[in-house]
Amino acid sequence: MLPSLTQARAPLTREVSAVNEFGESLTVSIPAERALTVYVDKRELVTLMTLGAQPELLVLGFLRNQRLVQSVQEVESITVDWEVGAAAVKTRQGISDIEARTAKRVVTTGCGQGSVFGDLMAEVDTLVLPAATLSQAQLYGIVNAIRLQESTYKSAGSVHGCALFSGEQMLLFVEDVGRHNAIDTIAGWMWLQDAATMNGGDKVFYTTGRLTSEMVIKSAQMGVPIVVSRSGITQMGQEVAQRLGLCTIGRATNKRFLCYSAAERLRLQPELAGARYRI
Amino acid sequence: MLPSLTQARAPLTREVSAVNEFGESLTVSIPAERALTVYVDKRELVTLMTLGAQPELLVLGFLRNQRLVQSVQEVESITVDWEVGAAAVKTRQGISDIEARTAKRVVTTGCGQGSVFGDLMAEVDTLVLPAATLSQAQLYGIVNAIRLQESTYKSAGSVHGCALFSGEQMLLFVEDVGRHNAIDTIAGWMWLQDAATMNGGDKVFYTTGRLTSEMVIKSAQMGVPIVVSRSGITQMGQEVAQRLGLCTIGRATNKRFLCYSAAERLRLQPELAGARYRI
Predict the structure, then answer these.
(1) What is the CATH number of domain A134-273?
(2) Which CATH number fits domain A4-119: 3.10.20.10, 1.20.120.450, 3.40.50.300, 1.10.3720.10?
(3) What residue of B is the nearest CA neighbor of A119?
(4) Rounded to the nearest 10 degrees, how much is the dihedral formed by the CA atoms of A131, A129, A145, A59?
């Protein structure tokens, strides 16, 4: 009863010519960026701007994270056609009350969110996160795995990356022009796995982008209690994470990091931090 | 006939405690992030997540860039009250057809946009940008001015900065948790200035964020024909800029840069680029 999905992967980079500071013309790679209009049971829902790596998982995760569908079984098929820039979602039973549930708009913090339908914040307090911890050694393993990952970012820049880990083992790495798309794609992928093996309990979510409230909430919705970023945190991200008991770890590069919330989930091993220095 | 505006500036950073890699607790600054719900003539329009530095200009620029008001004179007042997280906009004549004009949603590329109402792209082809050029020396002046700017980013990280320049003279510097907010704030500020002196013709727009289609379009809507960024460009940003003849300059740090479009607006002075090296 899993949905039927196309595999409409499109080229992720494109070459354009540019002029540099010496006045020379050169060819550089830039990330692709495509408009994908989502239709649910033939009703236009939203247009997403995306790199286009895994559009079907993106749409599935978007529907999940917007709470428009409650289980993956409700989705019969997702058909992406880049010729027309459309993703056609067919549900088994229709989505009741879709008009009302998509009416309220929130324009969220710039770097990597897009809009959130409805009042997600009201649902936050109902979320209970699984008990899980991460050791400092595992955290360093995660940071190192990301460093080694081949990526569109390395070849063309200007994309955000997200990854899902189990301990320090990388399960999935996703890039997109918006990090809200990357996390939605991960949500879609998790949903496709068997629910018994793919609960978020022992999972860690990594993002190159900032720890905003939306990233924290989406992680919590997926049942992932630990989020790691190379960037910092915003005030609402920190407040929501504290309320949820979700562990946020930012500024994670090399051996350094800052844990902003739920530090009890981080099993510190300061002896691994290396030579002590102050800047 | 300029609108009456409150000046509801709120604290831009907040101190929280964090745990570092040595297991030490320390106090760090993070950027503030507030929900600001915009009401136009008592009708709820949208909720913006913002740092809160200049909320009235943000709301004014948001209305402008969404094309919901055609001139600054249509706005009678903007009253921001952080106690309730609300911005009340009063127009002189009402906004006709506001339901239809805010119905279509586009979730734009992650890093720094928010949603765009209506079909902005359809309007792009009607925009004619003023003739203007920038010398390589002026470009270096802009990059240096940004480097010297005191900022929330330096003290707390996790914000985007935007600035408006006339040649290499900085007219305004704005930071926000989303760079779409920062550019909207600049748009609001420009609108408040006398139209005769504040057309975009000789202006240059700077952003720390990526050159996405939305940034390019918003710059073009403000009549600013040159955009500079320390980041790169996305495919749609590059395509729209080429169509508009808008000069986009990315990867601008120290003496380096890449001009992705309308290079004829950049008066090259390769002798200023310094010693030649290849990486």
Answers:
(1) 3.40.140.10
(2) 3.10.20.10
(3) B47
(4) 150
